[in-house]
Amino acid sequence: MDYRLIYLYLLIISAFVSISVFEIFVVIGVIWAIYQIFKEKRLEGVLRYPVLVFSGVSVLSTVLFAPKMISKAVEEGVFQFLYFFKTGLKRESISRLLFFMVFIGILLFPVELYKFFKTGEFVPVWGSTFETGQFYGMFSLMALFFGFYFYYVGRKKLSFFMFFLTVFYFVILVLTHRRSPLLGYMIVGYLSFLVLYLNGYMKKILFWGANLILTVSLIGGYIYLSKTDVRFKILNGILLGEKEFNFQNLNRISNARIGIGIDAVNIIKNDIKEGNWINLLIGHGVRSGYYLPHQYSPKSWMKYESIFVISEFIEKGIIGLLAILTIFFIAFKRFVTTKIKDSFDIVALGLFVPLLIHLIGSVFTFFWDALLPLYLLLFKIGEVYFGKNR
């Protein structure tokens, strides 16, 4: 019996059922991973150094400057050690795991539909429409990869079913009105077509056709949001000259991120002025907004949720920010340069998707997410698979 595989399934199920239970499984996985590290006396993974630096800076800056948030620092920093957990998954296990995740989208839909009729929003068992957007964005691209795989192995009915799920899940993503997951889906979708094309699994006409379909779908989504979302209505009004280009309108479009960003920049300016070099290097600590000034943003907000470069600089300083930027660079480079040797490798690309969509979505928020440990672990499984099968 493979206890690591059982653990992985329980971790994934808990991620969509209860964040509290999920965090219990993360703690178990982190302890397990640390045991593996000490046993083998080595760290593995292309993201090992930036993950270590990010985790270390998160905890250190919080201990020094925001000790009330030490539990949150452990959650946002140490929990990412799950990346080092060794699963030892083989091809068959990876196939079942990803198929299971695609199937979760079907199981979640009745809950989403029930909550839509009850609250008017598509929300999952826990979380908000943001989680729904992230979930169904990654389910959609995973289903897309399965669709291509089944097509190449001659299982046309399964292929068409997966393509149907791709579209269906994308529609749910659009209906959430969440811009960050939608942006992540768009960029990772285009890059996915590029990877398939560069590896000879998409002919030129299919490559451009797929890009056209994705572009038309996104335009359709934008038109829908322009009619239903006040933020898009204001943006269109500015673009058409019907509304003023001013602070109030920009702040509404950005969900108050302009004001938050101004507060964050003022804090950084003050640190430079007063020579707070330790804060500039490692930040003010996780969720340090509880004690830092707020002039244009709500005082109850503990994170300066603006462009992630600013948000992360406040909490983790230049060192933590560089670690995050390194994760961005390595993760996308690893994905784009993937070499596909056989049709099953297309399915395995789905392991990279959750982290990549999250990274793009975090550009206008912040790097941390409650499910980030899972996204990092799935990415690690993907890099190990492609590393062993080259």
List the helices and strands and how they pair.
Elements: H1 3-17, H2 19-40, H3 48-65, H4 70-76, H5 91-119, H6 129-152, H7 156-175, H8 179-198, H9 204-228, H10 230-239, H11 247-253, H12 257-274, H13 277-282, H14 308-336, H15 344-348, H16 353-361, H17 372-388
Helix pairs in contact: 1-2, 1-5, 3-4, 3-14, 5-6, 6-7, 6-8, 6-16, 8-9, 8-16, 9-10, 10-11, 12-14, 16-17
Quick overview:
It comes from Persephonella hydrogeniphila. This protein is mainly alpha-helical and 390 residues long.
Fold and architecture overview:
It comes from Persephonella hydrogeniphila. This is O-Antigen ligase. Keywords: Membrane, Transmembrane, Transmembrane helix. The chain crosses the membrane at residues 6-34, 46-66, 94-114, 135-152, 158-175, 182-199, 205-225, 313-332, 344-368. It is a single chain. This protein has 390 residues and is mainly α. It has a domain at 3-47 and 73-202 and 337-388. It is built from 17 helices and no strands. Helix 1 (3-17) packs parallel to helix 5 (91-119). The longest helix has 29 residues, at 91-119. The protein is globular. The two termini are 28 Å apart.
Key traits:
single chain; 390 residues; mainly alpha; 17 helices; 72% helix; transmembrane
Oligomer: single chain
Question: What general outline do the C-alpha atoms trace?
Answer: globular
**Overall average pLDDT:** 87
Terminal residue distance: 28 Å
- Tally of individual helices: 17
Tell me the β content: under 5%
What is the percent of helical residues?
over 70%
Organism: Persephonella hydrogeniphila
Protein name: O-Antigen ligase
Transmembrane segments: 6-34, 46-66, 94-114, 135-152, 158-175, 182-199, 205-225, 313-332, 344-368
Keywords: Membrane, Transmembrane, Transmembrane helix
